[in-house]
Amino acid sequence: RWGRRQRVLLWGVLLAAWEAAWGQLRYSVPEEMPKGSFVGDVAKDLGLQLPALRDSGVRVVSEGRMQYFSLHGKTGHLVTGERIDRENLCQLVEKCVLRCELIVEGEMQVYRVEVEITDINDNAPAFREAENDLTLSEMTAPGSRFPLAEAHDPDLGRNSLQSYELSGDEHFSLAHFSLAVQAGPGGDQRPELVLAKALDREEAAFHELVLRASDGGDPARTGTARIRVTVLDTNDNAPVFSQAEYKVSVPEGVPVGSTLVTVMATDEDEGLNGDVKYSFHKISERASELLHLNTETGEITVKNDLDFEEISSHELEVKARDGGELSDMAKIVITVTDVNDNVPKVSMRSALNEISEDAPTGTVVALLHVQDRDSGANGEVRCTLDSSVPFRLEKSFEDYYRVVTANELDREKVSEYNVTVRATDGGSPPLQSSAVLALRVLDVNDNAPVFAQERYSARLSENNAAGALVLRVRATDADWGQNARVRYRLGEGRVRGAPLSSYVSVQADTGALYALRSFDYEEVREVGLWVRAEDGGEPALSSNVSVRLLIVDENDNAPQVLYPPPSAAAALGPRAAAGAGWAGVELAPRSSEPGALVLTRWLVLAVAAVSCLFLAFLLLLLALRLRRCQRSRQQQLLQADASGALRGVPATHFVGIDGVRAFLHSYSHDVSLTADSRKSHLRFSGGSCCDTLPARPPPDEPAPLLGIEDPA
């Protein structure tokens, strides 16, 4: 079986473990310990490892200006930050408890720590006045009692005041006086001087006594006060207070100089024996700083500001004494009521200054502590946030709140937030304070580059210079920093079997598209390509746009004779060789009718490097005309063969070389195709109109094409 001591120890361990699990630690430490003294092993009690304790950013926060405790970073121990005086901190309080919070920033956790400051015997009993004068009449009856000044010891328990002792001349003074100790309403000891033997002024006009007060410490501490008794003639009436106890209630913050209460005592004696004076008989040191007593009138007034949050009530005793040293006592109870004079205080215990825009909903960004020193409804605090921000408040622990994200964040819409936390108490009128949390939203690469146009096109004249600027493409990225940095590159492709990159290039930073070589319209009419814009994120996002490059034709090619070939022209003699082109020769009878076919087997065709559509249309027109001319010529030749002559000229007229030359001189047409402008023209030029067979087409032949001139 376990003994009683083991069971108590087990219950203590279980209680400490339960309190640690629920976020509360309790320790005790004697007062007056030097700075850095051990209080408790926080790391062990919370189950935190020392490396994690250092990395989590653990700190101790205490209310008020003094920080009485701190955390030792190497050991994880809670130690004293200052020398602690229990009597200075906890006046009129039996159990002195200091509270602080342990903030674990890395986990956004807070733990309440309570440290009880235990008393040591560091104070000796002390009297407010080291010397006291007492005047008694020689007619004072033996057995009369006279209250003496009480000693005060701020220590507690056995260390506080325990006993009084009277000393003096054993053969004379102690023969006339003795000491009696009465218990007060609160259990305090009240010394009284008892007249044991009648006084005789003629025997002794003065008596010297010493009152010693002792506490129960080990070793005991003592304090003394000297009592001088003066023997006077008869004073048979003592002052009497109108009330044995005076009670008054006053709101805190009452103006200095205000009268709280007036005590009054009467003495039926006359002259000096009936002159009453008032004084504080029992009063705390703090109350003596706040209150003033008029010794003549008995008015108690405010000397310094009363603060409910500091001390809510004062108990004191007033003594009324006449000129013959007879006196009476009255108790005064002053209750200070609370008013709404404290603004709620919002403190940022831990806060982030930046957050990623992809942070999930519910991410904690700040840990707040709210405090109002008032009581009741005046101390009830309600916290709110602006409705326009994507954050909300959550109750964390007692007076602690957490600010968490309520919605998804988008840096491209809002890049910074100034979150205002407002705390309002329940007073009338309510008081309000606020704190601002500045939060910057960090960018995430969630936006791809977007081109300014859906597609691009440009026209480039052929024979351009290598390196010529074609156009610029531009894309923007709504992200920030490296995520918004856009670079451009060409997509894969080929032109006439060669890589696209050998024809054009794009500058990575500006999006400028350049031609790397000179284009020839007769080879490449159009180039289609893709340009990709890619940002600098990780991973990178990209988008594509199509670019169409049209090559514009220029008049950079002279006409060429495709048929007949040059070899056929050379066989006809010097005249063909002398001209710039070639002259086709056909024999035609002089009797040919207007519109008769002249050119049959030889077609003089001049071709320029023009567009394929125009060339195909021209060839089609010539082919149709040639077909009709062939049918007409066949009919004329049949008529000529039947008569043996052309238009009355014998066929023998055209026999031999001389006849051919004569025919060429009289009946010939020069056909040429010029390209001296954007429009092509088909011209027929002849020497003598009267000797040249007409070349006008028959009436049923279609009209010539637009842009083709026929002077005949």
How would you summarize the topology of this molecule?
Layout: H1 4-21, E1 24-30, E2 38-41, H2 42-46, H3 50-55, E3 58-62, E4 69-71, E5 77-80, H4 86-89, E6 97-104, E7 109-118, E8 126-127, E9 131-137, E10 145-147, E11 151-152, E12 161-168, H5 173-176, E13 177-183, E14 189-195, E15 206-215, E16 222-232, E17 240-241, E18 245-251, E19 259-262, E20 265-266, E21 277-282, H6 285-290, E22 291-293, E23 299-302, E24 313-321, E25 327-337, E26 345-351, E27 354-356, E28 364-371, E29 381-385, E30 391-397, E31 400-405, E32 416-425, E33 432-442, E34 450-451, E35 455-461, E36 468-472, E37 475-476, E38 487-490, E39 494-495, E40 498-499, E41 504-506, E42 512-515, E43 526-534, E44 542-552, E45 560-563, H7 566-570, H8 574-578, E46 605-607, H9 612-643, E47 645-646, E48 649-650, H10 656-666, E49 670-674, E50 681-685
Parallel strand pairs: 1-7, 9-16, 18-25, 27-33, 35-44
Antiparallel strand pairs: 2-5, 3-6, 4-5, 6-7, 8-11, 10-14, 12-15, 13-14, 15-16, 17-20, 19-23, 21-24, 22-23, 24-25, 26-28, 28-31, 29-32, 30-31, 32-33, 34-37, 36-42, 38-43, 39-40, 41-42, 43-44, 45-46, 47-48, 49-50
Keywords: Calcium, Cell adhesion, Cell membrane, Glycoprotein, Membrane, Repeat, Signal, Transmembrane, Transmembrane helix
Main location: membrane
Subcellular location: Cell membrane
